[in-house]
Write a structure and sequence with these properties.
single chain; alpha+beta; six-stranded antiparallel sheet; about 20% strand
Length: about 350
């Protein structure tokens, strides 16, 4: 049975209260061969359908809730292996079954707990979403990025708040940004692809954003024009949609702790960041997705992530009820100022 919902609230000092409970993960399709060439499926029997105007047809809902249990970075115990053994996969599946069962118990008891924070999911055989560097670990930051990182705002790690820019763009409901918007979180993992002549639109459930991607060969924007999500241009290489995104404003983060297994701490971006994505249809229900991020100002080398997007046209998008004037930001600042003006005595701390 499908169950989904979303709630937004705030606690004075306890953190941004975001809650959702949702659709079970899809089947095991795509788990064993995320890195396989798109043409390998069906031994060449299946052909990518075409839109009415002749482009490869990628339209549909492709939620990535099936990837919640797959870490962004690869745990070191796996080394350079991209896929788990049967035994390792079984252990991960058991943990997720136990978690999902606990969620179901909460629902039956009409209890607001962790079951309302995370969508149910199934295990994948992927050891990580990162595939390059080969060890699946995030590249080292440049010295300039190491200097910028502590200055970035975020409620995930900061304890003192005085102004809105002490929070990141996700806290403030502006954008989750790129790359983070294309990676899983515990809720609101819906991705839907729309197409029209000359355009592909990637609709995101989180922050209710829509990436409008021209595929008509138009030139890129003037480099002086900077945007939160950058500016994308797409083209077709056979049946594969290739999207190149530049013109970032350099304010957002490259990752955030909301992505399971992401690097701890802030990872900055620069105006020179370039993202190249590939949407390669493998069969009627699977797209092999990859993203390569190159930001020479902040990283000593590029990185690439890859995962299967599995079709689920029954997935329901729900309102992401969030706006930049949310009360959590105001409450954080008010409480932070109060606590600094009225420090607790050692007796109070006990």
């Amino acid at each position: 049975m499908r169950r989904r919902g979303f709630a937004w609230g705030a606690a004075l000092a306890g953190g941004l209260v975001l809650a959702a409970c949702g659709a079970p993960g899809s089947s095991d399709s795509g788990q064993k061969s995320a890195a396989a060439p798109a043409a390998a499926a069906d031994a060449g029997q299946w052909k990518v359908p075409r839109t009415e105007w002749g482009d490869p047809d990628l339209r549909g809902k492709w939620p990535i809730s099936t990837l919640i249990g797959t870490p962004f970075q690869r745990p070191e115990k796996y080394g350079d292996r991209q896929f788990m053994t049967d035994e390792e996969y079984g252990e991960v599946q058991q943990r997720l079954v136990a978690r999902n069962t606990a969620y179901e118990r909460e629902i039956k008891k009409n209890k607001m707990g962790m079951g309302h924070w995370a969508e149910a999911t199934e295990a994948q055989r992927l050891t990580s979403l990162l595939v390059d560097p080969p060890n699946g670990r995030f590249p080292e930051l440049t010295e300039s990025a190491k200097a910028k990182a502590p200055l970035m705002g975020s409620s995930w790690g900061r304890t003192v708040f005085d102004k809105p820019t002490d929070f990141d763009t996700w806290d403030r409901c502006i954008t989750r940004g790129l790359p983070p918007s294309m990676f899983p979180f515990n809720y609101n993992n819906g991705i839907e692809i729309h197409q029209a002549p000359g355009y592909v639109v990637v609709r995101l459930e989180m922050i209710h954003e829509a990436r409008i991607i021209p595929v008509d060969g138009r030139p890129p924007l003037d480099p002086a024009i900077k945007q939160w999500m950058g500016e994308s241009r797409g083209h077709w290489e056979g049946d594969t949609l290739v999207v190149e995104t530049t013109n970032f404003n350099g304010i957002g983060g490259m990752t955030n702790v909301g992505i399971p297994g992401s690097p701890r701490g802030n990872v900055p971006t620069s105006t020179h960041m370039k993202i190249t994505e590939r949407f390669a249809p493998r069969d009627a229900n699977t797209i092999d997705y990859s993203m390569t991020v190159d930001d020479p100002d902040d990283l000593v080398q590029p990185w690439t992530a890859r995962y299967p997007m599995v079709r689920d046209d029954g997935y329901e998008f729900f309102e992401y009820a969030c706006n930049e004037d949310n009360t959590a930001i105001r409450n954080y600042i008010t409480t932070s100022r109060y606590e600094r003006a009225h420090p607790k005595s050692e007796k109070d701390k006990k």
